[in-house]
């Protein structure tokens, strides 16, 4: 394959540099705007062969597994370690600004609340058994190839310290070469490990996992496809003084720092009210904190998450009443007639957003709304539904939770009128 010399024009939404060829955009991972590079091109994908003029924003990556030069393939866990922090922060903020603009929303967007190395308390690893032992790491970008990691600067020290233990558990579980996932959450009582993607565990494999865990420290629980294999201690997560025992593989915010920022912005906006609805409540990240100041109705589709939330609320003193409701909010959003009993609503949906719920909120008289999102595009769509109905956006704050990736979280606050 012959190399061609190109100059990178801009950064795409996934963080790849883009060079506009005569027949359309070419995406060049690990490149930065203004750089002149020799690339090998296959259709719209360019691989860096050598560097000509590099950007002043280029820095040395923090991790040996990052980038086009990584030995044994480059880890797809991160895509932006080569970018200096100010440019990186501005890029992430610009994703939110652009998404809002695309829906005609022109409001001030705050500075990015930064993420830092070592903060990730929830990591989803890719794993596979090989003749040489278990590979545990991340998929190479756009590939099934697993890049085994020896270091990972994003993960919390607790997760990194457990890496060898995770390899032993994975080894005990895997009997074929099929790839599988290990979701690891660092909790107050040790690592909570959820294995998914292996079809079946025999009694022998279950025993092997149990024996492996019993011989080690630091592992609270191991579950397989949602079912507990061994629980030495109940995994516990602290939510501002409320202890929650999440179900296996539960959704939690990926870093405590981002979670605290989201909660702070939410509580500041909602202030002193009587009744709040927390929609897409998960295990109660917002509901259990809001319950210190107001009655909360928490709605969520995952039964086990809701049970964990309910159990925590019932077993914590000093909270206002918390009610829970299992409900599919895509199909059955809270209707205007139901919304009228709430002073404030927070919603924190998956990437698809909360379109149907926003259509109902748009017709409601709820005074204050907090929209939390992991997808600026669907957030912009949802906010446009609310603003068209008379809601005013009072703040938009981008938050970095997935360091060195193009993912960005957002908290937007709104008032009626
Ligand atoms: C981004 S998470 C937020 C969870 C929680 N607010 C937190 O911060 O931990 C989205 C939540 O929406 C739930 N969910 C997904 N689809 C749903 C639906 N159709 N109806 C209700 N809840 C849903 C998921 O189970 C998950 O708990």
What brief labels describe this structure?
417 residues, alpha+beta, OB fold (Dihydrolipoamide Acetyltransferase, E2P), Rossmann fold, 7-stranded mixed beta sheet, 10 helices, 24% helix, 30% strand, binds S-adenosylmethionine, SAM-dependent_MTases_sf, methyltransferase, iron-sulfur, NA-bd_OB-fold, metal-binding
CA-to-CA gap between the ends?
60 Å
Name the strands of the widest sheet in spatial order.
9-8-7-10-11-12-13
CATH superfamily of the largest domain: Vaccinia Virus protein VP39
The CATH class label of the largest domain is: Alpha Beta
Structural class: alpha+beta
**Topology, number of strands:** 22
The percent range for helix content is: 10-25%
- In the residues, how many domains can be counted? 3
Keywords: 4Fe-4S, Iron, Iron-sulfur, Metal-binding, Methyltransferase, S-adenosyl-L-methionine, Transferase
Active site: 374
Family: Belongs to the class I-like SAM-binding methyltransferase superfamily. RNA M5U methyltransferase family.
InterPro entries: MeTrfase_TrmA_AS, NA-bd_OB-fold, SAM-dependent_MTases_sf, U5_MeTrfase_fam
């Amino acid at each position: 394959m012959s190399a061609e010399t190109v100059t990178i024009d801009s950064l795409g939404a996934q963080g790849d540099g883009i060079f506009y060829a005569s027949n359309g955009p070419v995406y060049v991972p690990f490149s930065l705007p203004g750089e002149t590079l020799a690339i090998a091109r296959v259709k719209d994908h360019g691989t860096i062969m050598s560097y000509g003029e590099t950007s002043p924003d280029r820095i040395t990556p923090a991790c040996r597994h990052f980038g086009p030069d990584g030995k044994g393939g480059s880890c797809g866990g991160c895509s932006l370690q080569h970018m200096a922090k100010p440019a990186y922060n501005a890029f992430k903020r610009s994703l939110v600004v652009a998404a809002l603009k695309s829906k005609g929303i022109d409001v001030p967007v705050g500075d990015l609340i930064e993420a830092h190395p070592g903060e990730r308390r929830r990591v989803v690893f890719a794993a596979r058994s090989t003749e040489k032992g278990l590979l545990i790491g991340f998929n190479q970008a756009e590939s099934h190839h697993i890049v085994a990691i020896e270091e990972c600067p994003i993960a919390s020290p607790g997760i990194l310290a457990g890496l060898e233990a995770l390899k032993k558990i994975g080894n005990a579980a895997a009997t074929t070469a099929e790839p599988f996932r290990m979701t690891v959450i660092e909790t107050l009582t040790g690592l909570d490990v959820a294995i998914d993607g292996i079809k079946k565990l025999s009694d022998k494999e279950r025993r092997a996992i149990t024996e492996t865990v019993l011989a080690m420290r630091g592992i609270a629980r191991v579950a397989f496809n949602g079912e507990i294999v061994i629980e030495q201690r109940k995994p516990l997560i602290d939510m501002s003084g409320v202890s929650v025992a999440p179900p296996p593989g539960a959704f939690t915010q990926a870093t405590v720092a981002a979670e605290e920022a989201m909660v702070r912005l939410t509580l500041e906006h909602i202030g002193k009210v009587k009744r709040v609805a927390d929609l897409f409540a998960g295990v109660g990240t917002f509901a259990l904190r809001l319950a210190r100041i107001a009655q909360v109705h928490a709605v969520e589709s995952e039964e086990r998450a809701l049970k964990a939330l309910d159990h925590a609320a019932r077993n914590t003193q000093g909270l206002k009443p918390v009610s829970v409701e299992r409900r599919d909010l895509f199909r059955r959003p809270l209707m205007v007639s139901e919304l009228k009993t709430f002073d404030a609503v927070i919603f924190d949906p998956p990437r698809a957003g909360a379109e149907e719920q926003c259509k109902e909120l748009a017709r409601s008289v709820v005074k204050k709304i907090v929209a939390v999102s992991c997808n600026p595009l669907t957030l912009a769509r949802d906010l446009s539904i609310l603003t068209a109905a008379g809601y005013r956006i009072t703040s938009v704050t981008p938050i970095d939770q997935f360091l060195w990736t193009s993912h960005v979280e957002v908290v937007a606050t709104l008032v009626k009128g």
